[in-house]
Amino acid sequence: MGTKMLVPALFCVLMGFAVAIPPEDFRSNLEFFDYSSNVAEPAYRLVNNVYPTDVKVNLDNINLEEARFTGSVEMIVIVRENDLHQISMHQNNLIITRISVVNNTNGENVQMRSPSPFTQDSYYELLHLHFALPLVAGSYTINIDYTGTINRNPLDRGFYRGYYYYENTLRYYATTQFQPYHARKAFPCFDEPQFKSRYTISITRPRTLGPSYSNMAISSTEDLGNSIRETFYPTPIISAYLVAFHVSDFVPTTVTTTNRRPFSIISRQGVTEQHSYAAEIGVEITNQLDDYLGIEYHEMGQGQIMKNDHIALPDFPSGAMENWGMVNYREAYLLYDPANTNLINKIFIATIMAHELGHKWFGNLVTCFWWSNLWLNESFASYFEYFAAHWADPHLELADQFVVDYVHSALNADASPSATPMNWTNVEDNPTITAHFSTTSYAKGASVLRMLEHLVGARNFRNALRHYLKDNAYGIGTPVLMYRAFEKAIAEDYAFQRDFPEADIGAVFDSWVQTWFSVVMVNRTASTGGIVVTQRRYQLSGTIPDQMWQIPLSWTEQRHLDFSSTKPKAILSTPSAPYPSEAGDNFVIFNIQQSGLYRVNYDDDNWKAIASYLNSNNRERIHKLNRAQIVNDVLHFIRSEDIDKTLGFEVLDFLRSETDYYVWNGALTQLDWIRRRFEHSPRAHAAFTSYLLGLMNNVINHLGYDERPNDSTSTILNRIQILNFACNIGHSGCISNSLEKWNNFKENNVAVPVNLRRHVYCTGLREGDRSDYDLLFNTYNSSQNTADMVVMLRALACTKDQEALTHYLQQSMHSDLIRIHDRTNAFSFALQGNLENVQFVIRFLRSNYITIRNTYGGEARLNICINAVAAFLNTFEAITEFQQWVYDSQIGLGGSFNVAVGVVNSAMANLEWGANTSLEIFNFVSTRGASSAIFASSFLILAAMLIQLLR
Ligand SMILES: *[C@@H]1O[C@H](CO)[C@@H](O)[C@H](O)[C@H]1NC(C)=O
Ligand SMILES: *[C@@H]1O[C@H](CO)[C@@H](O)[C@H](O)[C@H]1NC(C)=O
Ligand SMILES: *[C@@H]1O[C@H](CO)[C@@H](O)[C@H](O)[C@H]1NC(C)=O
Ligand SMILES: *[C@@H]1O[C@H](CO)[C@@H](O)[C@H](O)[C@H]1NC(C)=O
Ligand SMILES: *[C@@H]1O[C@H](CO)[C@@H](O)[C@H](O)[C@H]1NC(C)=O
Ligand SMILES: [Zn+2]
Q1: Maximum CA extent, the chain
Q2: All residues at 6 or more sequence positions from 798 whose CB lies less than 8 Å from its CB, including other chains
Q3: Ligand number with the minimum distance to the CA of 712
Q4: I need a surface site. Which of 540, 592, 642, 710 has the fewest CB within 10 A?
Q5: Are residues 194 and 127 in the same domain?
């Protein structure tokens, strides 16, 4: 599944350093799993002494207005042991009306217990069948009739209802979201990934709607008068969470390259002209994956052609879901309108389709045994999310973007002492599991795969994946089977054996799966030239546990700079090891193109040499991804006090001439984090801001305020990130240019170029009044492109008009105009809009938290809002006021209380960091032309005072 959703990183809160919400909040945190119940507890688990093989699910009398249906299930099960008194399976919120069981060996009915032939356990979501006499091993057919509910709230998942308006009438549709354990809300089933069966679905729907959709194509249609029954071909062997269906008046665009390779994009009526980009890139991604993995998508249907449908949904609780044959997407991630969808959203369409298509092989064809191995299929899906989309369209530059999007966010997520290993299973702690699933499994897993690819080489990597898929097709995958596949691939490669005779690839893999990630410390002695490399865990704070990895090391030396080969020179599998290098002035740079998932710190002399090289005209001889790595590492080391702050800022000085997207991307979030730490001291804040503006002048001039026809993808992305940040921190050129564009839109109805909208709209509203807000709100309201609507939703929160802001926040709770999946985003946008609004928005949260919980979609969503506050509590007064409320509201907050306490602690730690370190940074910044010296002494007093208060 793939969600681009705003989920502030919880683990960072727990460790006491809140991460600022990244400028592009859709980037990380692919998925959001709402663990509303503890399904890993053994009582929820089924015993696998009964195994379903063929399941027929009939959904009848579908009534969208009343949100209900009746169903019947016929399942053939294999009983694997004798003397079985009961069969248990899952159900949730179904009304079971009749059950019968047939003995397939003699064709007779099996006598059920009387009374109470079956019992339902609503707490553990189970259905138990009881028999008069114990069953013996063999084959049985279970028939169950029931009545089901179509959930009215999409966040309830299962079989749910959404809506849209077309030709001024309200239209309902119903569809499914079963992952991870919601299939049981639509039909009784063995709802764990390890149970894989063949499903045959039939749906009876009102005649007024269009044909229904499910995993497979329609095999037969029956006219029943007012309704029509469609029966679908049997699926291949799949887990219940991959079953899907859809009932609506939606319309398809079908691209059939040959009749064996059908491909369709499906959406509500009225927006079919927005299908073409997804159709074009989706077909190409499928072709690329077919070729790379050596198993054809359309041939996976075990006797039937797999169709390849992609459905855009106005309401969808996740980002997308990889149901076999019928992928569901939130509309913004599938529909493309060249006039209204910006490049970031266009890239999302390509990457999310690649992610979901990647799951067809990793997840659907080969499924993990249990959720703790989720990283296996998610890692691959996230890897292909970038690389398959890259193959399909290299102009999107996704192979490079992978590094700043995934490697950097994995390193950031793992820097917390509470970060979880990839195979971690403790599902008891809901917030933690959410964090675990959202960041670690995706970004880290995919980054580990990329590291492995650079270690074993591209060809071996591909061959290993082919072995794994071929050997485990339609079965269950485990990490061990994956390691085997890699061993098999490298055993076929003599070159690798020669270079790394000792390498135990399973052990390398395992060392990264079981623990977080490391920092490599490189000490070089100039006089003799030797380098000593030491590894340890990297953390922003706290005591550092003893851990070891097998780290593929690649590096280059100043005298022979070469960033083209990422092939490791060694695997570091001891705490520390020496390597040779030439003596004299000859700095080293480790981790070429950041192909390894680790940070690198150096001795001071090596840093100084790198700093002066970066500040010379030779800067671009260091690969852009390594420049991005260096700024990102240095900024983290400044935070964790692993580098002298002045030295750190000396390294960063080259940003003054830097114009590259990747390098700035590695810097902006962290620079913003540091800037926030000055908020308690307006003068220090102003000084740091003016320092940042000085750093950015050159890149702003280089990019300009307008798009150019020959702009590359990274140039456009750079303009988006740079101008957005520059306007936010008060760059006067950016603001006046934006206002010009905004006024031209307002007065002359001249559309703002799509890639400039985010900062132009925001600046227009920030500098404007209620009328500007109203104009944008009306534009939002009449838009037919959801991605553009999200851009506007964000910009609307930039208003400084209190009435307008109140209107905005009220809409987020009570209006259909902000769909439920956008509500937490709306709240976060309000926090980010303007520094001046922060206290107002926090007060809104305090007064309305109960309504927020009810209308945003429950406690998990409220927790997201509370967590979002952490980065914005930046004065002592704000923290104490918030803390007071937290303790006063302990009962009302319920399960959110601990989250709120975490937020207070995190804000305290941030404030303390700011008080302790800002003077040193301020001193450096002053030498770079910012502000006065008189100020320093008053600042020192403030810092001392704060420390006192915090004790
Ligand atoms: C099913 O039928 C077989 C063959 O007649 C018989 O041996 C077995 O006991 C039956 N099972 C049950 C539970 O009645
Ligand atoms: C990946 O594997 C787990 C366990 O088999 C499965 O339940 C999950 O839904 C799969 N796919 C995902 C999360 O996309
Ligand atoms: C995670 O992997 C490590 C190394 O293989 C293993 O020791 C540990 O038991 C695993 N943890 C879980 C929860 O599977
Ligand atoms: C490497 O250098 C750092 C700082 O320059 C120093 O703290 C550390 O002890 C050195 N490590 C070794 C192994 O020489
Ligand atoms: C793009 O066009 C501008 C102006 O037309 C020109 O100055 C610039 O060199 C061009 N850049 C590239 C990469 O072709
Ligand atoms: Zn996924």
Answers
A1: 96
A2: 761, 762, 763, 765, 766, 833, 834
A3: 5
A4: 710
A5: yes
User: How do residues 599-632 score in pLDDT, each as one tens digit?
Assistant: 999 999 999 999 999 999 999 999 999 999 999 9
Ligand nearest to the CA of 714: 5
Helices 823-833 & 838-856 angle (0-180, nearest 10): 180
Long-range contacts of 458-464 (CB under 8 A, 24+ apart): 459/493, 460/486, 460/489, 460/490, 460/492, 460/493, 460/496, 461/489, 462/292, 463/489, 463/492, 464/488, 464/489, 464/490
Residue 821 is assigned to a structural domain of this protein: no
Ligand 2 close to Cβ of residue 179 (< 6 A):
yes
Together in a domain, 136 and 187: yes
Which residues contact ligand 4 via a Cβ below 6 A? 521, 523, 532, 534, 603-604
Ligand 3 centroid to residue 363 C-alpha, Å: 20
Classify residue 515 by its DSSP letter: S
Q: How confident is the model at residue 318 (pLDDT cuts 50, 70, 90)?
A: confident
State the Cα–Cα distance between residues 651 and 265, nearest whole angstrom.
49
**CB-based contacts of 931, cutoff 8 Å, min separation 6:** 683, 686, 687, 690, 925
Tokens for 561? 């700079």
Element (DSSP H or E) covering residue 51: strand 50-63
> Is 115 among the domain residues?
yes
Q: Nearest to residue 84, comparing CAs of 45, 122, 51?
A: 51
- Give the residue among 616, 686, 687 at the shortest CA–CA distance from 658: 616
According to the model, what pLDDT value does residue 273 have? 96
Domain residues for the domain of 553 are 518-651
Would strands 138-149 and 68-79 be described as parallel, antiparallel, or unpaired?
antiparallel
CATH value at residue 225: 2.60.40.1730
pLDDT, tens digit (0-9, with 9 covering 90-100), for 537-554? 777 766 666 778 899 999
Instruction: Assess if residue 84 is contained within a domain.
Output: yes
State whether the beta carbon of 708 lies less than 6 angstroms from ligand 5.
yes
pLDDT at residue 197 in the model = 95
Instruction: Give helix 604-614 / helix 645-652 axis angle, nearest 10°.
Output: 30
| Strands 138-149, 126-135: pairing kind | unpaired
pLDDT for position 27: 30
Atom of ligand 2 at shortest range from CA of 242: 9
Instruction: Write the pLDDT tens digit of every residue in 555-582.
Output: 999 999 999 999 999 999 999 999 999 9
For 427-446, the pLDDT digits (tens) are: 333 333 344 345 556 788 89
Residue 709 CB less than 6 A away from ligand 5: no
Q: What span, in angstroms and rounded, lies between the C-alpha atoms of 756 and 742?
A: 10
Residue 632 and residue 526 in one domain: yes
According to the annotation, is 359 in a ligand binding site? yes
CB 177 within 8 A of CB 316: yes
Point out the residues that are catalytic. Answer: 356
Residue 720 lies in a domain: no
**Residue 711 Cα: closest atom of ligand 5:** 1
* Angle CA 342–10–843, to nearest 5: 80
What tokens were used for 641? 């006090």
- Read off the tokens for 820: 């439920």
Residues 50 and 117 placed together within one structural domain of the fold: yes
477 lines ligand 2 (CB under 6 A): no
Pairing of strands 598-602, 518-524: parallel
In a 13 Å sphere around the CA of 417, the CA atoms on its Cβ side amount to 12
What digits encode the pLDDT tens for the residues 772-783?
Answer: 999 999 999 999
pTM confidence score: 0.89
413 versus 159: the higher-pLDDT residue is 159
Are 637 and 539 within one domain? yes
106 C-alpha to center of ligand 1: Å?
7
Who's near 128: CB < 8 A, 6+ residues apart? 86, 87, 88, 118, 119, 120, 121
Tokens found for residue 142: 């279970």
Residue range 893-927, pLDDT digits in tens:
998 999 899 899 888 888 888 888 877 888 888 77
